[in-house]
């Protein structure tokens, strides 16, 4: 009888109820909120569902992220090995390969001025960098945090890993992906504040047709030019353009389908879950995390505002041929930011169609954020 009681007592104390802290319960609640936003509100569910579930798992069973050297049998936790691939920048680069295979650069090629809007939207990154320095972060940590302003989760993870900011990778990644999901909420007030109804009603001319040769040459030329100037961008820009070359060449349909579907979604599952699992209560619930969330929001707002302001300037220069709303799409949340430009424009005029025009700055923003990350690596490494 004593043996049975002792066994039951041991089993009872092995349950999570006796091992969780108040912080763990708080993070479980946060994970449930993220799952609600993803499933009920449809806010980037492909990202938020695995991230939220990884957050849920690690705060119930912390050993799922245990390093081999810290475990009794030397094996380590399941998600630890996935997380290592984040730190090694493998998953972010593969995400860019998939994004390239899914992306049509035609609107950017048809309207090269979109590069200016994509570049302008990176202003928020540099604002956040200097603010992070002011708030007490060192230069490398500030650089890793600031990339959140590009609304690009893979690039944020990539730079944090390259700059050795592994302890901040979880909060940075969660903030970046969260703001990507909240683009439809954060951007419209900024866009409406900085534009008049007349500007939002501007209809743009239809984009010119882009030839197949132009689409094939574009990824090759961008890779050569960008990587010669900033070789540190090669892992991201190179993979982005390789995926796009798969798509546009038309001779490797199997590779295009694999990169844009099976491989892309496998990597999203592994990356999202492991990023979520890096947000244990001990690592996430601190003042640095709060600062990172605030800095990310500031960067995102400034990036959106800068894109719209440059859009207004281009509108003046072209005598009303450019709708300033497309400037907000310069943050690289593809294609959500472009859809928001379309939505705000159609609210002003239901017959206005800005989506394809906004896709130009949107994909330019992806390149711009990668270039910003490469610039920081060139400075600090």
Give an overview of the whole structure.
The protein has 381 residues and is an all-alpha fold. Helix content is 72%, strand content 0%. The chain contains 20 helices and no strands. Helix 3 (45-60) crosses helix 11 (166-181), helix 11 crosses helix 18 and helix 12 packs across helix 18 (287-317). It starts with a helix and ends with a helix.
List the helices and strands and how they pair.
Blueprint: H1 2-14, H2 22-39, H3 45-60, H4 78-87, H5 90-102, H6 106-110, H7 114-120, H8 123-134, H9 139-146, H10 153-162, H11 166-181, H12 183-194, H13 197-200, H14 212-229, H15 234-249, H16 253-276, H17 281-284, H18 287-317, H19 336-348, H20 355-380
Notable characteristics:
381 residues, mainly alpha, 72% helix
Quick description:
The chain has 381 residues and is mostly helical.
Rg calc: 22 Å
Unreliable runs, pLDDT <50, ≥5 residues?
Answer: none
Structure summary, number of beta strands: 0
Task: Provide the β-strand percentage band.
Answer: under 5%
Report how far the terminal alpha carbons are from each other. 65 Å
Q: What share of the residues lie within helices?
A: over 70%
Content-based structural category: mainly alpha
Oligomeric nature of the chains: single chain
Globally, the shape reads: globular
The chain-level mean pLDDT equals 90
The number of helical segments is: 20
């Amino acid at each position: 009888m004593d043996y049975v009681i002792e066994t039951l007592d041991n089993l009872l104390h092995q349950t999570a109820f006796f091992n969780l802290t108040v912080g763990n319960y708080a993070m479980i609640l946060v994970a449930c909120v993220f799952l609600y936003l993803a499933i009920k509100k449809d806010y980037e569910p492909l990202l938020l569902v695995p991230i939220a579930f990884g957050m849920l798992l690690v705060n119930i069973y912390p050993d799922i992220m245990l390093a081999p050297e810290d475990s009794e049998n030397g094996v380590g936790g399941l998600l630890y090995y996935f997380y290592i691939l984040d730190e090694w920048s493998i998953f972010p680069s593969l995400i860019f390969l998939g994004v390239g295979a899914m992306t049509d650069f035609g609107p950017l090629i048809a309207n090269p001025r979109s590069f200016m809007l994509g570049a302008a939207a990176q202003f928020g990154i540099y604002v956040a960098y200097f603010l992070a320095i002011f708030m007490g972060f060192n230069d490398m940590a500030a650089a890793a945090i600031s990339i959140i302003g590009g609304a690009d989760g893979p690039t944020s993870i990539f730079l944090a890993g390259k700059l050795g900011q592994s302890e901040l990778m979880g909060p940075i990644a969660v903030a970046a992906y969260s703001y990507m999901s909240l683009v439809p909420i954060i951007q419209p007030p900024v866009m409406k504040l900085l534009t008049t109804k007349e500007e939002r009603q501007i209809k743009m001319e239809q984009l010119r047709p882009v030839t197949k040769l132009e689409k094939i040459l574009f990824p090759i030329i961008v890779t050569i030019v960008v990587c010669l100037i900033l070789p540190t961008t090669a892992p991201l820009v190179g993979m982005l353009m390789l995926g796009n070359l798969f798509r546009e060449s038309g001779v490797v349909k199997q590779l295009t389908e694999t990169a844009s579907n099976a491989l892309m979604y496998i990597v999203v599952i592994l990356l999202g879950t492991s990023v979520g699992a890096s947000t244990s209560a001990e690592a996430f619930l601190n003042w640095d995390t709060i600062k990172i969330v605030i800095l990310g929001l500031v960067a995102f707002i400034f990036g959106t505002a800068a894109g719209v302001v440059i859009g207004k300037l281009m509108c003046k220069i072209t005598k009303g041929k450019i709708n300033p709303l497309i400037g907000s799409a310069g943050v690289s949340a593809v294609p959500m930011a472009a859809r928001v430009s379309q939505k705000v424009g159609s609210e002003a005029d239901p017959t206005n169609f800005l989506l394809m025009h906004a896709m130009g700055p949107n994909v330019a923003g992806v390149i711009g954020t990668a270039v910003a990350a490469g610039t920081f690596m060139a400075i600090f490494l």
